[in-house]
Amino acid sequence: MDDAKTVIVLDDDRATLRSLTLALELAGYRVRSYASAEAMLEDIDPAQSGCLLTDLMMPGMTGLQVQEVLNARGCTMPVIFMSAFADVPATVRAMRGGAIDFVEKPCSTEVLITRIEAALEIDGHQRDERNRQMDVRGRAGDLTRREAEVLQFVTEGLSNKEIARQLRISPRTVEKYRARVMEKMEADTVADLCSMVSLLSDPNPGPRP
């Protein structure tokens, strides 16, 4: 099964954990279930794809603390919180921490799958953008120092004549550097270059929940 369809389930209530695991497996997901936050954190790779479905209130580490640890490790896997009790402050804190959803227990399988599919779509988009960012960074790394300077000036909106004055070279030489930049960056337009530079400056590319 596609690893992107992985759902990590964390709940200290073993009956709930078994029920959720069975329902999600029957729905076609690859499920990894854990009864303790410590066991999950020890086992999970920060680069794990999929989404995390976790209880909010658990003995030991709470769901919010798990989220904080994952964030600190650079894990961007979307998080869905579950709770039998409405807790507005905790919900706000979770959303500020990057959670993409919050569901109250008990929750129907249909509703849960809808939320999970939304989370997996977000995860897929985020990973696509990070892959694109890595690709663009690799192209930018192949630029010479002068080509990088021209790239910066071009994306700042300077004309060839203005760039020539800044670098104390001829406009014709600027045109040559500009053509090389477009070729190396695989850009068709200046707008493409601007998009790439913007992507490189974003530490967390991808759609925001």
Can you walk through the features of this model?
The radius of gyration is 23 Å and the shape is elongated. The longest helix is centred in the middle third of the chain and has 33 residues, at 109-141. With 209 residues, the chain is α/β, with parallel strands linked by helices. The model has no long low-confidence stretch (mean pLDDT 87). It folds into two domains: 3-127, Rossmann fold (3-Layer(aba) Sandwich); 133-200, Winged helix-like DNA-binding domain superfamily/Winged helix DNA-binding domain (Arc Repressor Mutant, subunit A, Orthogonal Bundle). It has helices at 14-26, 37-43, 63-72, 88-96, 109-141, 145-155, 160-167, 171-184, 190-200; strands at 6-10, 30-34, 51-55, 79-83, 101-104. It has a five-stranded parallel β-sheet with strand order 2-1-3-4-5, with helices on both faces.
- The beta-strand count equals 5
Mean pLDDT: 87
The CATH architecture category of the largest domain equals 3-Layer(aba) Sandwich
Overall helicity: 55-70%
From the helix content, strand content and strand pairing, which structural class follows?
alpha/beta
Architecture blueprint of SSEs:
Blueprint: E1 6-10, H1 14-26, E2 30-34, H2 37-43, E3 51-55, H3 63-72, E4 79-83, H4 88-96, E5 101-104, H5 109-141, H6 145-155, H7 160-167, H8 171-184, H9 190-200
Parallel strand pairs: 1-2, 1-3, 3-4, 4-5
Helix pairs in contact: 6-8, 6-9, 7-8
